[in-house]
Automatic annotation (TrEMBL):
It comes from Knipowitschia caucasica (Caucasian dwarf goby). This is 3'-5' exoribonuclease 1. Gene3D superfamilies: Ribonuclease H-like superfamily/Ribonuclease H, SAP domain. GO terms for molecular function: exoribonuclease II activity; metal ion binding; RNA binding. InterPro entries: 3-5_Exoribonuclease (IPR051274), ERI-1_3'hExo-like (IPR047201), Ribonucl_H (IPR013520), RNaseH-like_sf (IPR012337), RNaseH_sf (IPR036397), SAP_dom (IPR003034), SAP_dom_sf (IPR036361).
């Protein structure tokens, strides 16, 4: 549903685009000032107070300059020699090779006091499917009909668990033919499913059983801003429950991908991200669980390429906001069932 999500309009949500655009502009300035191309963003945290005087950073800058001058064939050959993935477009391969050298250099320098940080133990990918029509009118209220989660370990760099429940819509219980054909979710599936409050309870229990937010630090990750700022927000209002605290901040992988690989927004759609990384879509498009698994595969490849995946969006008072990279890195709070609205 990733393309269809971009055409959704609601009266309930006021998207603060000026805040988002201002943040992106500010971050571009910060990246230029910090010399991002010389010291690319990786899973190793930057030095305290932005001090890049340590000799290791000069070595990294020199290596980056050499990599920038490599042809595609030279990049592929070097990656092969290092037993690294050779798939993807040229910019992806350059970033992968830079991150590999930076990681090696910083690991060697860690004994000298260069800090290394792992942001989260787990990343939980969520990609809802919701009721829809071919041409959604402005007044249409989308109800979640599939609640999938895919759990990724940042230590083993693999998918370790999945959750999936279908949801019975209550406001418009009859699915449109367009929605059925798009998502593959049948009327029988939703008729036999629980309502959203009960499914949310199951999702919370699943997260709690895995000790996320208590023993392990985790973050939610989505493909765009719609799942949390629109679908979940609208659904909570329709179900007369408060928005869950654990879902108020998340990683928008489209932003992370665009910033890390330095590509424009049109190249951050799910299918394009997969293609650029040399990956093929696995499963049925617009299945929430299959979409979530493929988003997780992109996240894993980005982690392998040295990207810092960290929370970059949040919702507050029904509005979407960017989370600046200067903000402290915090995991999502322990999941709990939200209270009913007064």
């Amino acid at each position: 549903m990733d393309d269809h999500k971009e055409n959704i309009y609601t009266d309930n949500i006021r998207l603060n685009m000026s805040d988002v655009l201002r943040h992106d502009k500010d971050q571009s300035c910060l990246r230029i000032c910090a010399g991002e191309d010389s010291v690319p963003n990786t899973s190793t945290s930057p030095p305290p107070n932005g001090d890049y005087s340590h000799p290791v950073y000069k070595e990294i800058a020199m290596a980056n300059g050499q990599i920038n001058r490599m042809s595609m064939e030279e990049l592929r050959r070097k990656l092969s020699d290092l037993k690294l993935d050779t798939r993807g477009v040229k910019d992806v391969m350059k970033k992968r090779l830079k991150s590999h050298y930076k990681k090696q250099k910083l690991q060697s320098a860690a004994e000298e006091g260069v800090p290394i940080d792992k942001y989260y133990d787990y990343i939980c990918v969520v990609d809802f499917e919701a009721t829809c029509e071919r041409d959604n009118p402005p007044s249409f209220k989308h109800e979640i009909i599939e609640f999938p989660m895919v759990l990724v370990s940042t230590e083993t760099l693999e998918i370790v668990d999945t959750f999936q429940e279908y949801v019975k819509p209550e406001l418009n219980p009859q699915l449109s033919e367009f929605c059925i054909n798009l998502t593959g979710i049948t009327q029988k599936m939703v008729d036999e499913a629980d309502t959203f409050p009960r499914v949310l309870e199951k999702a919370v229990a699943w997260l709690q059983e895995r000790e996320l937010g208590t023993k392990y630090k985790y973050a939610i990750l989505t493909d765009g801003a719609w799942d949390m700022s629109k679908f979940l927000n609208i659904q909570c209002r329709l179900s007369c429950i408060r928005y869950p605290q654990f879902a108020k901040k998340w990683i928008n992988i489209r932003k992370s991908y665009g910033n890390f690989y330095k590509v424009p927004r049109p190249q951050t759609k799910l299918s394009t991200m997969l293609d650029n990384l040399g990956l093929k879509y696995e499963g049925r498009p617009h299945s929430g669980l299959d979409d979530s698994k493929n988003i997780a595969r992109i996240a894993l490849r980005m982690l392998q390429d040295g990207c810092q995946l960290r929370v970059n969006e949040r919702i507050h008072a029904g509005q979407l906001h960017s989370v600046p990279s200067s903000a402290p890195v915090e995991g999502a709070p322990p999941p709990h069932n939200p209270r009913s609205r007064d």
